Amino acid sequence: MARSSYRLPKIPEMTVRRLSVYSRCLRELEEDGVKTISSQELAERFNLNSAQVRKDLAYFGEFGVRGIGYYVAGLRAELQKILGLDREWPVALVGFGNLGSALFNYRGFGRQGFRIAAIFDDDPAKVGRDVDGVPVFAVVDMAREVRARSIQIAILAVPAEGAQPVTDALVAAGIKAVLNFAPSRLRVPRDVRLKDVDLSIELETLSFYLAKSGR
Amino acid sequence: MARSSYRLPKIPEMTVRRLSVYSRCLRELEEDGVKTISSQELAERFNLNSAQVRKDLAYFGEFGVRGIGYYVAGLRAELQKILGLDREWPVALVGFGNLGSALFNYRGFGRQGFRIAAIFDDDPAKVGRDVDGVPVFAVVDMAREVRARSIQIAILAVPAEGAQPVTDALVAAGIKAVLNFAPSRLRVPRDVRLKDVDLSIELETLSFYLAKSGR
């Protein structure tokens, strides 16, 4: 149903984000028993932009069928594959304070195939423990444990001060992608992908609409 | 320097998100002492798309000056105003477990003018306490306290099960915007803005690039 030619152009990160959103919409449609849907209907139901949907998908192939639209289950499977979600990713969680604990218990990760396989923290009260079957190690053991578990993705939930040395240790351990919750600008080598999560951006989309409505 | 005509078209949420990003880039430039910058230079330095930058800004006015580009400080001030960040927003934090505590301590919110003015939680061990000067109330007192503090924005950090009744209480109390961290689909009236934060989308942008590079 699609060419898997998604090595060609440089894909904007916003497109990738939207693929994740589309995949969630399709899951919902699947749960509702919908078999096929046009880009127009998809856009209307989920408040998307249908031209944008078509453009985003066009990076990866020709998914629509004339007169039918998209096959919901088929398109979702393709998107999951494109997003790398057709497999399980072991993940390292670094920092097990309030935020780390909250992220550990965040059910969304597991649902998408991200499995926290090791926790790292330097608090002696935590090291050596086991949280729901996941071991807590000291940062000094990172290289060994990351390699032993073939971990490529790390979630960084440490205070700003410690973020750069811990990132350096992650990179040295062979980590290839870092999701950073620490409010600091980190340096990583070119072949390591860094994604900063800035939660205040989410609030700003709200204040924008409140300010606009003159409240 | 700009028409403040941002009531005209429907602004896509992705555009609003990008305005937040541009504002952060401009802050960085300001800190570095940069006075003016072209959309091209801005795009190159921060890995943005210059046509997109121009298109996003065009929703709100004509900010560029021919032969000069953008005035960094002036454009940032305009963006802050557009985003509603030229004022302080009192915010209600609902749910004070691990995630709530982490969000309370998240420094990014305060930096952008979002001040947590009240915490709501039904744990009797928490109600009546005061966390760094912020009072913790029971959910039953929400309407009174939200009104007394003129709060319009709430951050929802409760478990999925309790999310809808708490949202209903927030709406009844007069809240106009909800940032939802609970992994549940909430119903709100049309005049209330709901923003779901799905942290696994952030991880998916990483798995996409790892999968693409064939790792």
> Given this structure, which CATH class of the largest domain in chain A is correct?
Alpha Beta
Multimeric organization: homodimer
**Largest sheet entry of chain A:** 7 strands, mixed
Biggest interface: A-B, 65 and 65 residues
- Proportion in β-strands of chain A: 15-25%
CATH architecture of the largest domain in chain A: 3-Layer(aba) Sandwich
What is the spatial order of strands in the main beta sheet of chain A?
5-6-4-3-7-8-9
The SS-based structural class of chain A is alpha/beta
Topology of chain A as a string of helices (H) and strands (E): HEHHEHEHHEEEHEHEEH
* Radius of gyration from the alpha-carbon trace of chain A, in angstroms: 20 Å
* Uncertain stretches of 5 or more adjacent residues of chain A: 1-7
Helical fraction of chain A equals 40-55%
Number of domains of chain A: 2
CATH homologous superfamily assignment of the largest domain in chain A:
NAD(P)-binding Rossmann-like Domain
Instruction: Give the overall form of chain A.
Output: globular
Would you give the CATH topology of the largest domain in chain A? Answer: Rossmann fold
The rounded distance between the terminal residues' Cα atoms of chain A is 49 Å
